[in-house]
Amino acid sequence: VMEKADFNVTGMTCAACSARIEKGLNKLEGVTKATVNLALETASVEYNPSLLNKTDIVKRVEKLGYGAAVKD
Ligand code: 9UX
């Protein structure tokens, strides 16, 4: 069963940024679908909770050079 989580993403200034994050997240083992919205500064990620958690997703975004926080 997949889970879905939304994140606030900071530091994106152009469409290539959002595309980079999307690519990086979609490459993560366990992520089934990631979409990033540049204008809203958000990311929506569908993932397998037995393979990774929200913190792993935040860390991946940070590793790419952006800020991320779980949205509640
Ligand atoms: Mo756009 Mo983002 O040139 O790191 S890709 S600012």
Automatic annotation (TrEMBL):
Chain segments annotated as coiled-coil in the UniProt record: none
Source organism, top-level taxon: Bacteria
Domain HMA: 3-69
Places the protein is found: Cell membrane; Endomembrane system
Family, as annotated: Belongs to the cation transport ATPase (P-type) (TC 3.A.3) family. Type IB subfamily.
Identification of the protein by name: Copper-exporting P-type ATPase
Residues shown, of full length: 71 to 142 of 806
